[in-house]
Amino acid sequence: MARILFITLGCAKNEVDTDRMRALLLDAGFSEAHSIEEADAAIVNTCSFLASATSESIETTLELADAVAEGVRSLPIIMCGCVPSRYGDELPPELPEVSAFVRADEEDSIVSVVRDLLQLDTAVGARSGALRTVEGASAYIKISDGCDRFCSFCAIPYIRGRYYSRPFEDIAKEVRRLADGGVREFVLIGQDTGIWGKDLEEPRTLAWLLREVAALVRDVGGWVRVLYLQPEGMTDELIATIRDTPEVLPYIDIPIQHCSERILRAMNRSGSAEQLRELFARLRSEIPGMVLRTTGMAGFPSETDQEADELFDFISEQEFDYTSVFSFSPEEGTRAARMEGQVDEDVKLERTQRLIDLTEQLGFAATAKHVGERVKVIIDGVEESEDGLELIGHTWFQAPDSDGAVHIASGEASVGDIVTCDLVDSFCYELIGEIVR
């Protein structure tokens, strides 16, 4: 039984893609390796969203090749995902250490690729039709891929292609199987989740999808969370669905990138500070107690000191619960990389750090406001601390892997369990919980 080592870089969407390949390979009779020493082949699922992510992907692959060269096993390395999708035929001459390159849209052929490299005619194992290998109570579910926005700073449309919605029947099948396997939190992701369904033969809306998924998980007490919305996607129907569907968490993730109308226009995005103010005021009015996450970008080409201050003041005024801050990166092939008025690196870093300092101050305060609440917590792991074993989990206003965690110093629970906790203290984005007995 050949053993496969999986290495995943990048975002949650890549985690889903890796898990899909893992499920296909395990279903075909392969097994998973957890170290180079025990592996017969290695799969590196790469990220190329930013130049730094591309560099990390290549460095990780080369480090793996060096480790293989120093060892005693022959280990084919397969590079998958965004880097092969973006750079294609340029890669084989530059990376002879890699045995095969698999683009994102070719990953369903991974079983054949691995068999060919290992010179296997067949793989032993019953076909169960497994779609995922998720363990625990939370799972990401891709509802779409690709993007039609062509923001001037973003290479995703060139890497992942044009936008397409995953059919509801496929999503529903995955949700049912995950629920049967013990998953209780279903996190819907895509490049632009808000427009899901517009391209289907029978057009649907994200609001419709949320209601359908909520109905599928209602009997198991499931949570439904949706990430990566855009301001234009917040329709009346969607707002009402989030407000009125108990299974859908009132956690809204809307990347704004900027608030200056001029900068947004240069980014090939729409909106203005006033339009965003109106949207967030409406959301807070119609969905009381909701949690709001956003993303801001510092140092976009031609951004002035005044516009940088405008973004700083806007974020300060809105007091988002969570904010990710990025420094503009001139990505190869994008229009923004060729724009005049590129901001000096030192200025970009200063503006970025100023925003990070602000958003941490706001985020720490928002986290502290939850102290005193009684909440359900999903247990994600168990860690060793100075005082013994500590349970680590997250609650409804914390997206997994993104927003901090709930730390529980005493109590008995296993990964995947859902426990009721009183939140008794906070530090930074973290909370201290005590299990209610």
Question: What can you tell me about this protein's structure?
Answer:
The chain is an alpha/beta fold. It has three domains: 3-118, Rossmann fold, CATH 3.40.50.12160; 138-368, tm_1862 like domain (pyruvate-formate lyase- activating enzyme), CATH 3.80.30.20; 374-435, OB fold (Dihydrolipoamide Acetyltransferase, E2P). Helix content is 35%, strand content 22%. The protein has 13 helices and 18 strands. The strands form five sheets. Strands 2-1-3-4-5 form a five-stranded parallel beta sheet, sandwiched between helices. α7 runs parallel beside α8 (206-217) and α12 runs parallel beside α13.
Low-confidence stretches: none
Radius of gyration: 22 Å
Main β-sheet description:
5 strands, parallel
Distance between the termini: 46 Å
CATH fold type of the largest domain: pyruvate-formate lyase- activating enzyme
Tell me how many strands there are: 18
Given the structure, what is the number of helices?
13
